[in-house]
Amino acid sequence: MRHKSAVHIAYLIDDSEVDLFIQKKFLELCTFAERIVTFSSPIKALETLQTISHNEIPSIIFLDLNMPLINGFEFLELINDLPGGISKKIKVVILSSSNSPSDKLRSEEFPNVIKFYSKPLNMEVLQSLNLALKPIH
What we know:
The chain has helices at residues 17-29, 42-51, 72-79, 101-107, 123-133, and strands at 7-13, 33-39, 60-63, 91-96, 113-118. By secondary structure, the protein is α/β, with parallel strands linked by helices.
């Protein structure tokens, strides 16, 4: 029997279909979220976020930085323009191939960003996130 996840919906945003597939399978095996939605385009993710209902807001977004058209930092700026204060309800984890100290520092400027990790996801990352996502009573 699978245990109930603390995360209702997780988004994975990455322009690499291979990375999306691997990360989604890993999250499913670890029962990290009740539902995992993947986007190979940050623009499609933004369009979805603009039209979703309150109960469909993702608890967490795993976001790649290096993507064409709009990069991860531009995505982080654009989610602030979402209607209904949606951006305040979303936690973002940068999941990037970049280990650049300047990228890490820049990501800290965004209040939604709770962690910065290098790809790929692993069990240590998920355990750390589970602690960070636990509600405070």
